[in-house]
Design goal:
By secondary structure, this protein is an alpha+beta fold. The protein has one domain: outer membrane lipoprotein receptor (LolB), chain A, CATH 2.50.20. The protein has six helices and eleven strands. The protein has an eleven-stranded antiparallel sheet. A hairpin with a 2-residue loop joins strand 5 and strand 6.
Length: 258
Amino acid sequence: MKIPLNCKPICITLAFIFCLAGLAGAQQFIDKALIEYEVKTNVKKTMGNNSWDEQLKDQMSTFKTGIYKYIFNGNQSIFKFDHWDAGTKVPEYLRRNDEDNIWYFDHGQNSFLMQKNIFGISFYTRDSIPAIQWKIEHENRVIAGFNCRKAVGKISDSVYVFAFYTDEILIPGGPCSINGLPGMILGLTIPRMYSSWIATKVQVNNVPVNEIKPVESKKFSSLSAMLSLVKERTQDWGRGDDEESNKWKQQLMWSIML
């Protein structure tokens, strides 16, 4: 059947509108979810080469692998430890810090609360959300079923972080205190900390939003005050000013700021 010439512009316009509607219907934008992450650290590389550390290395697995969950609803989120991978075999002192750490964010108020266990001592922080300068790149990757784009940022002035984020999940969050991209970070690598965070599941139904609760404490400090306090309390730790001790203390400070 021939389409009258005067009808063709209308038909083309309608076809374009239907095409846009189809694309809009196909793309999902998530404002509430539970995201499960596999967090892996090569603990042997974080250790020294002295006889005590070498003896410990023989009794433990190379990687410390934990499963964490990130739960968010609107602008609020919480990131915390869930359980250890069955293959993880490391000393208790290398595990207990992770088990107690909690990060709570309110992006609407630009605030975050953090609970950190540092060798048996609990520290509580309240501060504005740390700002990270990002450079978005053209590399893409699919993580947990979502198309993600690569971005490179820097923390603690000199530590580069490599992230993959998706703009289909609206909150500008990520594991630990890493944030600030136009969407959710589903993949993260910090080479100098020998660690990676990879989302393995995104659950959008039956999200346990009741678990999104602010960290509670009678006393909070700012992030910079907490760092100064930890430096003061740990200045005599380690084995002096040798290269291994300095590396260990540097790793500790990076993990505190994370």
